[in-house]
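Mods, move this if it's the wrong board.
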Amino acid sequence: MRDENTESLFTKAVEEYSDMVTGLCLLRLGNRQDAEDCYQNVFLKLLKNKEMLQAESVHLKAWLIRVAINECKNHYRFRCRHKTESLESVTLFYEDEHDRRLMAEVMELPKLYREAIYLHYYIGYSVAEIAALLKVPQNTIKSRLKRGRDMLGKIIAEEEAI
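Not the wrong board. Structure tokens:
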């Protein structure tokens, strides 16, 4: 594969999937600087993996999510001993006030539910795809989505009551 073609495919992948990878890293790590580090590592690995650049977009998207999850896990191991920002800083990623408020509510959920909600509603993955990505049974994902929706409903109801 020519270098120009590699560069073109890489640029297209970054443009298409950078928001998704950034959002996933922010959700998993809760720290913008750590998320940016993981984001860079994910796309550096993509640049080194020329075969994946040529893969179908469905496979590339799944590969990027899997690599992002693994990068976040690796980064989290080291971060456990260091002070980090609060999860509230994640909402700054969104420009629209409504999106920021909704993401703030999602961020109040426990990590398991937050991740399932994000992958399903923000990225658009099915239950089966999320189960495969996270390596858990489909029923586990269904439970996380239901519990996450229930918790979001309570949070929204409490805010409306105020």
